[in-house]
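Can anyone check this?
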Amino acid sequence: MRRSQHTEHEILFLLDEADAGISIAEICSTAGISLRTFYRWRKRYGGLTSSALRHMRELEIENQRLRSLLDKLSEHRQAVHAKAPVAKPPRQEFGCGQAQAEAAKQSRGASLGRFASVRYTR
């Protein structure tokens, strides 16, 4: 993103001039900015003092630092999960006894499971 040619303190000064009663068109022409830029600045910085601006800047820096830590943590977590796949526990066959093994041999590999009574045979 393109950086502004004006510092934040200059922007606050221009906004204070507008609050003092100088016309916005005159402020924009002397500062070399468009009306849209002025109103965008007013929306973002309107009502801020220098100390509030400094505090906002510190919060933005802290937010950026926390986001980078979160990104690093997410990357580390993905790397750990990619290296060590989770082993699935073996599937338990309920009621799998000798009788079902015999039935499987007789059915030539057809699945005779829990719902075998519902299936029909040809």
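Reply from J.R.: I decoded it. The mean pLDDT is 80.
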